[in-house]
Specification:
4 helices; about 20% strand; 4 strands; Sufe protein. Chain: A; alpha+beta; binds zinc ion
C-alpha cells in the first residue's frame, strides 16, 4: 500500500468517527466523570467512565465532546479501544498512543482505529487535541501523576 493510500484511508477512518461517534449514550449516576479543556484549540470534553474496582476494568466509556475533528475522533476511537480493558491494558495502550503521536517507537497492533491519528506526529500543535481524551481518562482513574 502506498503512503498516499494510507493517508486517505486514515483520513476516512477519522471522518467516520467524527460523523458517527461511537458509544454516545446517557451515563448512569455511578459513572465517574471529569471535564477537560484544551485551551490551545478550544476542545472541550466531558468524559464518563464506568469503572469496576473489583476487577480493575473499564466497563464503559461515554462522553460529550466539542472541538476539532482530531479531538472528537480521538475520543470516539478511545471509547472503542478501552472499553472492557483492564487498567494494565489501558496503561499499555495509552503509552503506545503517546509514543506514536510524539514520534517514538510504538506497537500499532494495540491501537485499533487510533493508528489513523499517527500523522499528528508531524503537526505538534495538534498533539494536545489527540491526547485530550486519554488525559481525561487518566485523570478520572487517578493515574495522572505527571
Ligand atoms: Zn483540537
Amino acid at each position: 500500500m502506498s503512503y498516499l493510500n494510507d493517508e486517505s484511508m486514515y483520513r476516512e477512518i477519522i471522518m467516520d468517527h467524527v460523523k458517527n461517534p461511537r458509544n454516545i449514550k446517557t451515563p448512569n449516576d455511578h459513572y465517574r466523570k471529569t471535564y477537560l479543556k484544551n485551551p490551545s484549540c478550544g476542545d472541550e470534553l466531558y468524559l464518563y467512565v464506568d469503572y469496576d474496582e473489583t476487577t480493575n476494568t473499564i466497563k464503559d466509556i461515554t462522553y460529550k465532546v466539542t472541538g476539532c475533528s482530531i479531538c472528537c475522533s480521538s475520543v470516539s476511537m478511545m471509547s472503542e479501544l478501552l472499553t472492557n480493558k483492564s487498567k494494565l491494558e489501558m496503561a499499555l495502550i495509552i503509552e503506545n498512543f503517546n509514543n506514536m503521536v510524539t514520534g517514538k517507537e510504538y506497537n500499532p497492533e494495540v491501537l485499533g482505529d487510533a493508528v489513523s491519528l499517527k500523522g499528528i506526529v508531524n503537526v505538534p500543535p495538534r498533539i494536545k487535541c489527540a491526547t485530550l481524551g486519554y488525559k481525561a481518562l487518566l485523570q478520572i482513574l487517578g493515574e495522572d501523576h505527571e
